[in-house]
Amino acid sequence: MSHENSSTITELVLVGFSNHPQTEIPLFFLFSLVYSANLFGNTAVIILVAVDSSLQTPMYIFLCHLAFLNIFFSTVVVPKMLFNFLASRKVISYNFCIAQTYITLFLESTECFLLAVMALDRYVAICYPLRYLLIMNWTVCMTLALGAWIIGFFASVVPLYLIILPLCGPYVVDYIFCELPILLHMFCAVTSLQETVMAIGGAGTVLFPFLLIILSYLRILVAVMKIDSVKGKKKAFSTCTSHLIVVTIYYGTGLIRYMRPKSLYSAEGDKLISVLYAVIIPMLNPFIYSLRNKEVKEGMRRVMGRYKNETK
């Protein structure tokens, strides 16, 4: 290992899927389509909530934050990946690699807290329906949303700044983007302290929000079981379905990635999992919420009807 100072590194090799050159052109078109659908779907959600006053409730405000996060995350990762599919030299600049590491860690942490906030919102809506708008007023709503971003920042970026070390050669990132677990193996020192800090940070930014989600849904389940009518139970559960699907996909991917036995680890497998949570899931989220949500469908009809009337 060479101990060249990181300040002298200008670029690193970003392997991506270059081990399978015959797949690069098909993957370029596939991921371009997925990324376009991501931009369209998430932007549509933000615009729909902005122009339709009936959707300007806490649930949809939190959904807008999630949509913005999905766009931000994919934009940090996908364009560079698409460029490298067509480039003869599969490289990434050192500065952009470090920036990707900071930003993706920040956004992953923030998404965990946003999902927890959305679970809390569903808990209040179902367990305290008559006081829902009083409890989840505009001030509380914005405080929770901004709090998720702020806590995500201080729980990820600040610790990373304190533990990140210079990199040692060979400067090869065998992944589709730069991420802390990948760079950890390239640090020019023993990384036991960094691994401990990462484990503690992971417990705070992943497990703590997950426990809040579990507790919220346990309370929701108890409240729903007390509802006498079957119709009332179905209506209560239907308001949580989309969020539960998103949480299951997001945390399910995380469990597969971090909790599987070491014997099942492989570079190619990790790349496929990273494609799932960095490219596919951000594209799926707006469609999960809109296709299963009657209020979103009605909001789309109102906006489209208003647009048709204005163009006549």
Describe this structure in words.
The chain is mainly alpha-helical and 312 residues long. It contains ten helices and three strands. The chain has helices spanning 24-51, 58-86, 94-127, 132-135, 138-163, 180-183, 192-225, 230-259, 267-291, 294-311, and strands at residues 11-14, 91-93, 172-173. Helix 2 (58-86) packs antiparallel against helix 9 (267-291). It is globular, with a radius of gyration of 21 Å. The chain starts with 10 loop residues before the first strand and ends with a helix.
Indicate the structural class.
mainly alpha
H-E order? EHHEHHHEHHHHH
- The total strand number stands at 3
Q: Give the termini separation.
A: 70 Å
- Biggest sheet, strands in spatial order? 2-1-3
For this entry, what is the oligomeric state of its chains?
Answer: single chain
Contiguous low-pLDDT stretches (5 residues minimum) are none
Proportion in helices: over 70%
Overall geometry: globular
Radius of gyration: 21 Å
- Mean pLDDT comes to 85
Task: Give a quick precis of the structure.
The protein has 312 residues and is mainly α.
Topology, element by element:
Elements: E1 11-14, H1 24-51, H2 58-86, E2 91-93, H3 94-127, H4 132-135, H5 138-163, E3 172-173, H6 180-183, H7 192-225, H8 230-259, H9 267-291, H10 294-311
Parallel strand pairs: 1-3
Antiparallel strand pairs: 1-2
Helix pairs in contact: 1-2, 1-9, 2-3, 2-5, 2-9, 3-5, 3-7, 3-8, 5-7, 8-9
